[in-house]
Design goal:
alpha+beta; six-stranded mixed β-sheet; about 30% strand; globular
Length: about 130
Amino acid sequence: MTENEITEIVIGCAIKVHRSLGPGLLESAYGACLNYELLKTELMIEREKGLPLIYESINLDCGYRADFIINDKVIVEIKSVESLTDIHMAQVLTYLKLSECRVGLLINFNVLKLTDGLRRVVNKYNEVSFS
């Protein structure tokens, strides 16, 4: 399954959750509901996956945790904030680098229309693009 196919399924699940719950809840509530929806798909889901930092051949557990890693290819980071900022994008980029995944989704559920809170981050061999 390609990254595009995976992200299409994840976005569909996120839209379903957002339509049902709307904005204004805690991130943990959206995470639990998104996890439930993703489990109903054919995707392989890892939730709150630890990402070690490797520094000079030393594996350091610094507490980095991706909300979801899907099929070992796509990082999904969820938020429930007033607006997404550069630091949120940097977080996803860091997770992409640590996991060696190429595609990340940053989803802010605290918006009226979910597509307004959705950002796709692509890490193409250390070249990063945002959309």
